[in-house]
Each structure stands twice: as structure tokens, then as C-alpha cells.
What we know:
Helix content: 55-70%
Number of strands: 0
Structural class: mainly alpha
Radius of gyration: 12 Å
Strand content: under 5%
Shape: globular
Number of helices: 5
Amino acid sequence: MRNEKLYIARKENRLKQKDLAKKINVSEQTYLRKEKGKDFTQTEMIMLAKIFNCTLNDLFWEETKWK
Length: 67
């Protein structure tokens, strides 16, 4: 299942997968698999949050809605 939050952040910032792959030091193919659902390492997640100037929660976790 694709990481929708990351996908949207990438599209809104007009970045290509190959651009982000280079910024977090992985191959384009590895980045593609990870954006489609394979887990990012903690270091990669932190780097992506810094690139998008947001929190890890903003990119990687669903908000819990309490009733």
C-alpha cells in the first residue's frame, strides 16, 4: 500500500522519485519500492521529514481519531 502522505508531499513540492532517492542516498528503484509500501529506515524517515520541513507523524503515521 502506497504511503499517500509521502506521495502527496512529493507531488506538492514537485519532486521526482529519483530526486528524493538521491537526497536520501538510495537507488531510484529502492525509493519506488519504499514509497509503494516497503518500510523506510529511521534515518531515511528523518531525512524525508527534514526535506519536507514536517514531522515524522505528518509523513508516516495515521492520525488517531478519538470519539
